[in-house]
Design a protein that fits this description.
Blueprint lengths: L4 E6 L2 E6 L4 H7 L23 E4 L6 E2 L10 E3 L3 H16 L15 H8 L23 E3 L9 H9 L5 E4 L6 E4 L15 H5 L5 E3 L3 H8 L5 E6 L7 H4 L9 H11 L3 E4 H22 L5 E2 L4 H10 L13 H17 L6 E7 L3 H6 L6 H10 L12 E4 H11 L20 H4 L6 H15 L17 E8 L2 E9 L1 H13 L6 E5 L17 H17 L9 H11 L5 H7 L8 E4 L14 E4 L6
Parallel strand pairs: 1-5, 10-11, 10-13, 12-17, 13-14, 16-17
Antiparallel strand pairs: 1-2, 3-4, 3-5, 6-9, 7-8, 15-16, 18-19
């Protein structure tokens, strides 16, 4: 359809812009920046903050440019005394109820309210506080909400309801008592929150942040009786440099390893080792299901936010989920059994720290079934429940690791490139691409193809499953056995595929789901801001590392082969079943009812509850 162009006059200059474009975007096209606070492209445009005000000739009042659209002949002014005064007043009103703890705030120097206040020249506040102090919500193992720092921009609600279709939060009360809340004030840890952290990623202040474990990890590093090892997910190598002030998508694998050694970790390992292990188990599980006519499509299980989403909203589809643990959890189980035994380390004194792009990994590490290493040793050594430990002790996000580097004075940009420790640091190109949406699918197919056909896959770049489209599909011919596969990122897109399964209409044999936009590289624990442009740059770096790896297929990883030879024996074997596979549970649904405007805003009574199991 041909776009209708109209003429707009912006600050006296004429420009041609598409009809229906917002004034905000039209000003950008014309070369004029209008400040924003609550607005976020592709997420929210609630027009709640009043920072993007402009003058439009003929309008009786100032216009909010993020929602108002241009029309032919429109005349716009973006900077006048009236506009500046109105913008500053609106920001001052927000600051009146905002805590004055900027110096100790987790988002200090990375806070949009702080930035916009400086930009607009707000140096004093004429208004008094009108809101009462509210208690923090610390019920979640992944996220902490501080309603006192909330500016009611609605971004968190919008991303939770429209992108993720979870509706875990919404607006409650009215007037000065309005606040973002959960079902019956139960807290994020007691409702159908998936812990994906996209709310924290889009929050302009510190109203929602990751649960900080940096002090606890520092304490473990200083304990001479502990052996503290670390694993890093694929997406960290394309995120940590950015968090340390480098260009978006900077590939800093070797510097990251060097930095972790300087923090004092005994060994620096790579989650990609167990990503390769995951592919060995998952590819064989898929082929076993096809051969035995098991539940198809099989859906990947690497994303803990996606798993919890399925447990809450699609419990009848749980048999379709792969039973494989995520690479993070496989690593903990292997580190505290195979590696601990190999090195003569008491697993009770081993501390395994994960660095992940994902806030949901904190929740995953505390699932009660994630204690398989302890269960493994309990019978062998007659340990009691007093000796119990989790497979993973701490999970740090990319942002937390950056804070540890900064606090320790690590000069990240000047660090030399160092290698991961062996054997749990060896990986292939297939494991690298786990960090991007479509990567798990591509890695699994590289192995499944060669296991089934016995032939070498000539082209390892399965581009049909790459990219940022919400749902992608492809068909792979395994010497006459044709597999139709699909890839989805964001829980909203996952919902569409699960609804197909519920109706019995899914044409696929294998589905990959990642909770976050872009996959792990867009995870809730990644640097803020994370835009589509930065996601694309991070993906480019991940695929570049894959291309540069000498081995690009998981089944060719020599360290994984040694693990099977020495201990596991074969994929899907008895020990693999105990250490590397898991189960899921049906959960209740306690969510915010959509108030009818597509944003998830409630109407004061806007809760929806489905009776059932605990929502935790």
């Amino acid at each position: 359809m041909e776009t209708t162009m109209i003429t707009a006059r912006i600050n006296g200059a004429e420009c041609r812009v598409p009809q229906g474009m917002t004034i905000l975007d039209a000003c950008k096209v014309a070369g004029f920046r209008v400040p924003t606070l609550c607005f976020m492209a592709d997420v929210a445009k609630n027009a709640s903050c009043g920072v993007c005000l402009v003058e439009v000739k003929g309008a009786r009042s100032l216009v909010r440019s993020c929602t108002a659209c241009v029309f032919d002949g429109i005349e716009i002014i973006t900077n006048s005394a009236r506009i500046r005064d109105a913008r500053k007043t609106n920001v001052e009103l927000l600051l009146a109820n905002h805590p004055k703890d900027c110096l100790s705030c987790m988002r200090n120097q990375n806070c949009e309210l702080q930035r916009i206040s400086a930009e607009l020249g707000v140096v004093s506040n004429r208004f008094v506080q009108t809101r009462k102090q509210m208690a923090q919500d610390a019920t979640s193992p992944s996220l902490v909400r501080d309603p006192n720092k909330c500016i009611l921009c609605g971004r968190c609600i919008a991303v939770c309801s429209t992108v993720q279709t979870v509706h875990a939060i919404g607006l409650s009360q009215r007037g000065i008592r309005t606040r973002v809340s959960t079902y019956m004030e139960k807290g994020l840890g007691n409702v159908a929150c998936t812990n994906c952290g996209q709310c924290a990623l889009v929050c302009p202040t510190a109203a929602i942040v990751e649960r900080d474990d940096t002090d606890a990890v520092f304490e473990e590093l200083l304990d001479p009786d502990k052996v503290v090892v670390v694993q890093t997910a694929p997406a960290i190598r394309v995120g940590i440099g950015e968090a340390m002030g480098m260009a978006p998508g900077a590939l800093v694998t070797g510097q990251m390893v060097a930095g972790l050694r300087r923090l004092g970790f005994s060994k620096v390992f790579d989650t990609q080792f167990t990503a390769d292990l995951t592919i060995m188990e998952e590819a064989h599980e898929l082929l076993h299901r096809i051969k035995t006519k098991g539940p198809l499509p099989m859906v990947t299980s690497c994303s803990p936010g996606w798993i919890k989403f399925a447990e809450h909203f699609f419990p009848d589809a749980l048999p379709h989920l792969s039973t494989c643990k995520s690479p993070q959890q496989m690593f903990g189980a292997i580190a505290k059994t195979y590696y601990a035994n190999k090195m003569g380390i008491d697993p009770r004194k081993m501390v395994v720290v994960s660095v992940m792009p994902c806030t949901a990994k904190k929740y995953e590490a505390r699932r009660p079934e994630m204690m398989s290493a302890f269960e493994h040793w309990k019978e062998k050594r007659a340990w009691s429940e007093a000796d119990a430990f989790y497979d993973i002790d701490y999970v740090l996000t990319t942002r937390e690791l950056a804070r540890m580097f900064q606090e320790s004075g690590v000069q990240f940009a000047t660090l030399p490139s160092e290698e991961f420790d062996h054997p749990l640091g060896e990986s292939t190109g297939a494991a690298v691409i786990f960090g991007s949406t479509g990567g798990v699918m591509e890695a699994a197919l590289r192995t499944a193809y060669e296991v089934v056909t016995g032939d070498a896959l000539t082209d390892l770049n399965l581009t049909a499953v790459r990219g940022m489209d919400g749902i992608r599909e492809a068909e792979v011919d395994l010497k006459g056995t044709k597999l139709k596969v699909a890839v989805a990122h964001t829980l909203g897109n996952a919902r569409k595929l699960l609804e197909q399964i519920e109706r019995g209409e899914s044409p696929y044999a294998f589905i990959e789901v990642m909770s976050c936009p872009g996959g792990c590289l867009g995870g809730g624990g990644q640097p803020i801001p994370t835009t589509w442009e930065t996601r694309k740059k991070r993906a480019e770096s991940i695929y570049a590392e894959d291309l540069g790896k000498p081995i690009r297929k998981s089944h060719e990883n020599p360290a994984v082969a040694a693990l099977y030879k020495e201990v596991l024996k074969a994929p899907l074997g008895e020990l693999s079943h105990h250490l590397l596979h898991t189960h899921y549970e049906k959960r209740g649904v306690f969510v915010w009812k959509d108030g009818g405007n597509g944003t998830g805003h409630g109407n004061g009574k806007g809760y929806r509850e489905k009776a059932g199991h605990s929502a935790k």
